[in-house]
Amino acid sequence: MRGKPVQVYKLYSVEGSVVKRLRKPCPKCGNGTFLAQHKNRLTCGKCGYTEYLS
Known about the structure:
two-stranded antiparallel sheet; three-stranded antiparallel beta sheet; single chain; mainly beta
């Protein structure tokens, strides 16, 4: 395994009885995979999907 392990508590927030996702899910892989936030892009580590931020 490369890099640091995922800290899951940073991916969600709990507001009362509602759980909210803090990062955008990958449109190709579905709701179980989040896009990594980089300086100028969002990237999926599973399939390689990339969205560039303007």
